[in-house]
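Exam revision sheet. Question 4 asks you to relate a sequence to its structure. Input first:
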Amino acid sequence: QVQVVESGGGLVQPGGSLRLSCVVSGLTFRTFNGYVMSWYRQAPGKERERVAQSTGARGSNIYAASVKGRFTISRDIASNAVYLQMNSLKAEDTAVYYCKAGVNDWGQGTQVTVSS
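Answer key, structure tokens:
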């Protein structure tokens, strides 16, 4: 059974940085290496949107236009972990951030609040 656990959210001032972590259990490192891993976010009253995606062994990353150049997705195969480095944060980045492993496995979410 695949389990997805996020961490690293919190309160940060505009212009600041946060690093979110997502650890996936229930997969071998070889399977994880080939998994598509994604970060989504959902702000109050808005639909959930994908902000970043890592296609694993194929090596390509995809970013939403709103975060391109500010957010970076990366993975540590040895730890079955994927990260989202968020820089130059803005108030509009405030949301619950979710990690998705593959097609169907979601974490519980971690709150990111950008406010002065």
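Marking note for examiners. The chain has a mean pLDDT of 94.
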